[in-house]
Structure formats: structure tokens, C-alpha cells
Design goal:
Strand content of chain B: under 5%
Structural class of chain B: mainly alpha
Oligomer: heterodimer
Helix content of chain B: over 70%
Distance between the termini of chain B: 8 Å
Number of strands of chain A: 20
Shape of chain B: globular
Number of helices of chain B: 13
Strand content of chain A: 15-25%
Chain lengths: ~600, ~325
Amino acid sequence: MTRVKRFKWAVLLVALALVVVGCGDDEAEEEPVATTAAPATTAAPEPADEPDEPAPAPADDEDEPEPETTTTTAAPPPPPEPVTVRAAITGDEGTLNPYTYISGFPGWNILMLQYDSLMQLDAAGVPQPWLASSVSVSDDLTEWSVTLVEGVTFHDGEPLTSDDVAFSVEFYTTNPEASRFARDFRGVADVVVHDDYSVTFVLESANPGFDVVALADAPIIPRHIWESVDIPSEHDFGGTNIGSGPYILTEIAPDQSYRFAANPNYFRGAPAVDELVLIIFADDAGAQAAIRTGEVDVIFERIPPEQIDLLDAQDPLDVILGPEFATQMINYDASLRPFDDVAVRQAINMAMDRQDIVDTVYLGAATVGSPGWIHPGHSVYNPGIEVDVYDPAAANALLDGAGYADSDGDGVREFDGQPMSFEIITNASDSLRLRIAELTVEMLAAIGIKTEVLPVDTAVWENAVWPGFDVNNGRNYQIAMWGWSPPVQADPLRLPWLVHSSLDRGFLNLTGYGNAEMDELSEALAVEPDPAERKAILGRMQEIIAEDLPFVLLLYPDGAYVYDSSVYADWEFIAGQGIVSKLSLLPPSARP
Amino acid sequence: MTRRIDLRRVAQYGVVVVVAVTLNFLLPRLMPGNPLALIAGVDVGMLAPEQRAEIVARVGLDAPMWVQYLRYWGDIFTGDFGFSFRSSRPIVDMILERLPWTLLITGLSLVVSAVVGVLLGALSAWRRGTKGDLSMLSGMISIESLPSFWLGMVLVSLFAVQWGLLPSFGAVTPASDLEGWAHVWDIISHAILPVTALSIVGTPGVYMTMRYSMLETLGEDYIRTARAKGAGERRVLFGHVARNTIAPVITVLAIRLGFAFGGTVIIETVFSYPGLGRLVFEAVAGRDYPVMQAAFLVFTAAILVANLAADLLYPLIDPRSRTS
């Protein structure tokens, strides 16, 4: 009996270990459900992996500080029959206040249905006054003055005033767990309240993009609710969130659903959709099945390329497409041999058949990448950048000329006496990115560089490319598939973040790249008041990127969303941000 | 049985608990990855270093490992596991919200697969070697090799998408305001597909155990003796075979009951069912240490209790194990 018992205990321990380990193992098979974590995205199935960024956008003029004044429009009459929209999301979003929402997309977008920011992006992605009736900036770009719309109230009837604006800035800054909003207001030296409806932000240094980065991004929270809050992320607000936005959260069923009622007193007019129900799915396949059965009316996530035609063909479903400025790229550690040699980086750039990737992986639902980083549809795009650079013969000649020969005839070139053989790390949960990585292996093999795909779990991949989300920690990879969410590109003033060699400015410089001229241009860009001049600087920066290749940009996935047009069809696609916004749910007359 | 043996058993359980708790603490922290972005969003990379340090301090991750380990023991004794990094909600609430849903589908499917598996297993063994036995055996082996996510997707596409008979996701109809029997039916109709999927994949294991255990018993001398004494088939089956066969099956079921608390990541994902499996999966993917620690503890406790139950049940079922 003792022997049997001992064996049983062993089995028990193994069983326990399996339970624990099993949880880890499952990851490879299953799409992780929305984590805020990952810093990148594809257009498709996995909105999970999105950096938490505001989404400004391309549009016709760059986000210049506009001294002009726009007044708000009057409310239209509410629609006769109550409209309920059931929207699918993939992943829980916590209690949906500024400290507890989870994902950058669609979490932030849903958060902003309950709250308002001082400015709001219009369909072109340009910030327009919103809670503000006017916004103006001083010539030196350090003082931003805002006049508020009068008579706006929070959901509990209390008025929204300059005092709440100043309080919000202070609260976010002293409680940095809401890192997105703490970052928005990093660099604000003072907020001067002139009276109930006018306030001035005094910045430590010039910031021409303050309207996009901060004013159109951070929700204004009510002082009377939050001033007594001690630990914001853990505070119990009693089930609802008091904002000023068009929707009021009325019910949360954790991991199941959220229920929102329209705010009839919304200052821009009552929303067109009277009730909004968000249904939480574990993965996008479940959400797609549910929109086919009519159990949901819209999916608040991008749909994968292979689903676009299938879903669009089904009546009454429709698919809306638009530019999102998300990116798919190849990162390498440019501080390491042989990637510190620009010839190697240029050869990799020329080896990539971008059109082939767009066609085979995205089935055409993406735009071929410009080696200069900026999307050809963007207002600051430099048309002098050559996009069609695929030329494996020239890449081979370049590597031959730079002395990377294949001396042992095994089909792999050598550098410093070692074979040019590298690992491409990528997150296994993103099937599109994995397919791009596999094509990359073939394309690099054609120029004598041997690579192997290393698919890992999202947290491992992030930690290799961006350890601790702090570039000061260095890098632990050779080649990585990477991507940034739309805001990083949509707001071109963030370009220095990617390429500045000084790590307190280049806090998204994940490739260890440095170039003196680029640093100078980055600094000039930050203080240049004239939009035309800024565009010229950005044009030169694109030239350097296309030549010097701090990373290899492959493509820009397009945004695609599916909805049931028989239930609600007035969806508004904000360039760079998609359809999940208050604009989509307000009557067209109330949109900017 | 003497007192001494009981104390040894208690000590054994104690050792397993300490080892399991220590593993629960260490494994999340040994995984590569950083929970900072989960706590504060990826813009944490753009904060000032002192702001970042403040966030780390607020969740207690700046403390030395051994202090965090002792805190975990403190949590276990106070039953307060703090707040999730990911959703910022109290972890005890999160687990208690999901546990009933998980137990509903895993519990029901355990009952179904136990009943079906034992009956078919007994039938199969009783008719060993016949065409019926062999075809059932090969059928069960094929079912066992079905991937559960595939089975779940087939059920969804047939019963929900094609025929529209049952809901395709969730535990209840969202925002439906149903009450009374309508609410009960709503819950049942949502549970049918996941329970069916779990029962199908759960049955072959029980069937196999029952069949082999019974075949072994049927070959024992005392069965031959009973038959030689002229005992009827019914008396042989219920009086001699069944009782001696059921013990290994009870062990299998008890262990499964323990695992039932863990939920089933795959089935809960396919049906978007709000159970513990999904919670733990998301916690692991995002490195949500406190949720992982608390949930693993629930699993540990459930498996230990199930094992204890099996230990205690054994002597009742099988008199031979009462004397050593």
C-alpha cells in the first residue's frame, strides 16, 4: 500500500504541475484575448496587440495649432424609434474608467463614449474643438489657450468647467498608472484657470502637436467625483462612470457584456443610437459567427483580410474600409554586427517583395509600404521617396561589393567569419505576422541570408524587442517582426520618437539606430511653428530613413469593419482610428 | 488504522501544499515578460523614469522576492488576493463571478460523461470480443482523438449558424432582462453546446477505465468461483463485478472533479463562456501575477480536496483497502 500511495502522490504532483504548465502551453494554440500589452498590430484579427495611443491622422493639413474658432452645432431632434446596437468586442475592458479600461483599441475608444476631450478628431483625423469652443496657441508653441463650451454638464448634472480641466491634468500627472494620459500631459508646466470657461496650458517647451497628442486624447474627469479618490485603479465608483460623454454605463456583466444608455442631455445633441450593448467574445472567430447569426450588429474589431469578401457578400452585412496607418515592419538591432552596416540594411530592404506580401498575406487589403516610413496617402508624405525598391539582384550585388561573400559555398554569406544566419522573432498569436515572417525567410534566402522564424508568446516577444518597455534596457533580438498602431504614424510629429539616438527623446527607438543629421532634424521639428517648414523637415527625414533604414517598413494594413446595415448604418470611419467613436453614434448633424 | 498513519497523511498534504504554493508564486515570475504594460498600458514606455518607478512601487513589485512571497502567504491566510493588474478589480470577486459558470458546464459534463462512460464501458466489457464491443471501442478511441476546439466549432456552425437552434456564445443573452423560468431556460440553452462538447470529449476516458477495470475483474478467480457456485448472471454482475470494478473509476472521476474547477480554456474560448479557464489564460498571457497566484491556488485546493475525497471514499467502496 505504501508503494501505491507514494506513486499516487507523485501522480498528484505531476497533475498539479500540468495544470500550472498547461495554462502556459495553451497559449500557442489560442489567440490571446485583448491584452493592453503588445506594442504592435496588424490590420487584422488581433486588436489585442495595440499600443495605447491616441489616433490623430493624416488628412489634408497637418495638425497645426489652429487659432481659428469653431462653434458647436445645435442638437437635432431624437430619432422616433429607439435603436439598440449590439457590438462585439474581443476581451474584457474592466470597469471602463480612465484608470481601468484595458486595451488601446477598442478600450480607449469605448472609454471615450462616456467622456469627452477638449478636442475631437473629425473624419479626416484632424482635431476640431469639442468641449472647447476655441483653441489657440502662442507663436512660440508653448501656451495653448482653450475656451470651453458653456452649459456642458456631467452625467450627474454638475457643470463641467475650467476647474475640472485643470484638475484632470493634475490628477493624471500625479497618478501615472493611466500612462496614456500621464504621457499626454508630460511637459505641462502649469494650467492657468482664467475663469469658469477659459484656461491656458503652459508647456515646458514648444509642442506643435499638443492638440493631437493631448487635447484630443485625454478625457476630462469631474473634480467632485475624483478629488477624494486615493488609489484610482482600485477605487469603487459604485458601478457607473460619471463623464460628460454621449453614453452612460448602466450595467457590467464581467467577461460577458456592458450596457450603455444614451445621454439625452448630451451637449452636441442626443445620440442616434439609444442603447449600446457591448458583447465580449473570447476570440474573433466567435464574433464573426455571431454577426452571421444576427446575434450582434457590428464588430468593434478589424476583421481579417480573408473574411472581408465573405462577410460583405452576406445580406444584410456590409463592410466599411479605410486607412488606419498601422504598420508592419522588420526591426533589426542596428547596433549589432552585421546590421550596423548600412549596406546590409539596404540589401534587406531591396530583398523584400512588398507587393507579394500585400497580395498573398493580406489579399490586397493593405497598402505597400514606403521605405521612408510615411504612408503615401499621408499629408506629409514625400513623393520623392521611391516605393518600388524590390531588386534582389541589386541586393546581392550590394552584399558582394561590401565583402559579404559565401566562401564555403553553402548558400549562406559570412560576416566576421560567421555565417549570416539569424532568428526572426515574432508573436505566435498574430497569424498574419507569422506568414509575413515566413515569406521574409524565403526573400532573405534569395540574397544569401539564412533566417529562421522563432514564434513566441506575445509577452516574450515584447520583452525581447522592448525589454520593460524602456529603450534604456537595450534589446535582446537579432531580427524581429514588429508593428506600431496607427497613432505612431498618423501623427508625424512622433517620428523623432522612433529615430532619435538620445533615448529620452527616442523612446520608441527599438533598433538602436543613430544618425546625427536625423537628431538635428528631430530637434528642429519639435520647435518649428510653420506647418510648411515642418513638412519640409519631415520630407528630409523620410529621405534619410529610406536611405539609412533604421527599420524596413513593409506595408500598412487597411482597416475593415463589418456591420449589419438593417440595424444601423451611419458608421463614420475616422482616418487612422476606425469606426469605434462617438462620431459613429451621434446624428450626422452633431459630428464635426 | 492508527493515529500515526493519519499524521503522516496530514504531513504529506502539508508538503504538497507548500510545494504547490511556492510553485504558484515562482512560475509566473520565472516566465519572461513584464507586467508593467498590463498595469499601466504600453504608454508606460513614454513616461518619466520616476513615474514608472512609482507605478512599480504602488503594486508592490519593487519589494524583494522573499517579501512578495511572504505577502502571498499572507494573502492565502486572509483570503484577500488584492487587485488584478489587468482589470484593476478585486481578484476574489473575479474568481467568484466565474467559478459558478465553470462548475455549471464542467460539473454537468462530468455527470454526463460519467454515466454514459460507465454504462457503455460495462456493456462493452460484458460483451468483450463481440462486434459490438470492438466497434464501440474503436468509436471511443476516435472520439478521444478529436480536438475539442474543432468539435466546439463544428457544434457552433451546425446548431447555431446553420440551423439557428441554439445561441452561439456566452452564458446568458446579454442585456436581455429575462426573469424567472425564461432566465433559467436562457442559461440552459447557452450551456447545452459547451456541455455537449465537454461530455463528448470526456466520455472515452471514463469508458476506457470502466471497460479495462471490468475486464480485469471478470478474469479474477472469485468470479469464476461465483459462477461455479451457480450464481446467476445478475448476481455475478452486481454482487461481485460491479463493486470491485468501480473503485478505479471513482478515482478517475474524483481527480476530474478537481480539474473541473480549472475550467476549460479551449471550450470556454470557442463558446466565449465566462469561466475561470479564460480568466487564467488571459492572466498568463498578460503576466497578471496576482490573478495567476490566486487562481492556481484554487486549482491546487480543488485537486487536493478531490484527492482527499477519493482517499476517504476508497475504504467505503472497497473493503480490502480498510486493512493494510
